[in-house]
Amino acid sequence: MPVYRYKCSDCGYEFSQYQGFDDKPIEVCPKCGGKVHKVYTPASIQFKGSGFYRTDSSSKKTSKKGD
Asked: pLDDT at position 28, please?
């Protein structure tokens, strides 16, 4: 289940909520009753292993045996 972040437009209260993909978004602030909106943040990714950097790949050309 994903976690969604919300922020109230009236009081500035921020909170997170576990919600399913089919659940309706929260529209009312639990603190003051004002209107809330989703806060979108970039997803974090990590590149692990070889092949992600320019120095990981070989620039040498290999020749086939028998040439």
From this structure: 96
> Tokens for 37?
């909106």
List of domains in the chain: 1-43 (2.20.28)
Residue 3 has pLDDT above 70, yes or no: yes
Q: Where are the beta strands (DSSP E) in 1-67?
A: 3-8, 14-18, 36-39
Can you tell me the distance from the alpha carbon of 16 to that of 25, in angstroms, rounded to the nearest whole number? 12
* Residue of 63, 8, 52, 58 lying closest to 17 (CA atoms): 8
For the chain, the straight-line distance linking the first and the last C-alpha, in angstroms and rounded, comes to 56
Mean pLDDT of the chain: 82
